[in-house]
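Board notes (copied after class):
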Amino acid sequence: MRFGIIGAGAIGTIIAKKLGENGHDVKIADAREIERLEGKEIVGTPVNVEDVIENIDILIISIPLHVIPSLRNIVDKAGEDIIIVDTSNYYPFRDNKIEEIENGMVESVWVSNQLGRPIIKAFSNLLAYTLENKGTPEGTSGRIAMAIAGNDQKQKQKIMELVNQLGFDTVDSGSLSDSWRQQPGTPAYCTELTKEALMEALKKADKEQAPFLRDKVMKKISAGLTHRDIVNLNRETYNSETY
């Protein structure tokens, strides 16, 4: 398949790498200018953001949430049959406070509203290290699962098949309005769960508590923590102390 990726941060470049390794055609753009890709180790063809939507099947947006409204003019020109995937998560310290989300709007519903298009929420509940290094073949015992939400069942199924190819089981986490269950601060968020455990974690999510727990974890994150430390911190905070 043909992919366009907007965003050359950790998640965007890892997705590009894994897609390339699986034989897909990948174009990647920075949301600002192509010069920002210089010197970065990326898989795929660097392009201007205006060109990333040309001749693709799937557009993956992997940028900070507050930048997403600036893409409306790009997305408006994308073909109606292009599947748009949102990987973003809301962090007020980075994204500034977005009033609608602070008042309870689901993050990906806000994203869809900003883009004026339906989207699929995926690649949002795994850490970059997990995505890059912990994928395994289908059927592997203890295989890590990814939550995927969206309103279009056919589009969602295509992304679930893609994620399986990239090394992870999938759980259909419902409509876009249900995607709060995989947002930061919930048991499903960056806790490296199997399919069965992820299904249970999604059920346990507490929408009111999630922002509080998200911020609690961020206060404890430090440069000295390993990947395993962060996963354990997420598990302890999002599960034991609340549920």
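Comment from the instructor: The first strand starts at residue 2 and ends at 6. DSSP finds ten helices and eight strands in the chain.
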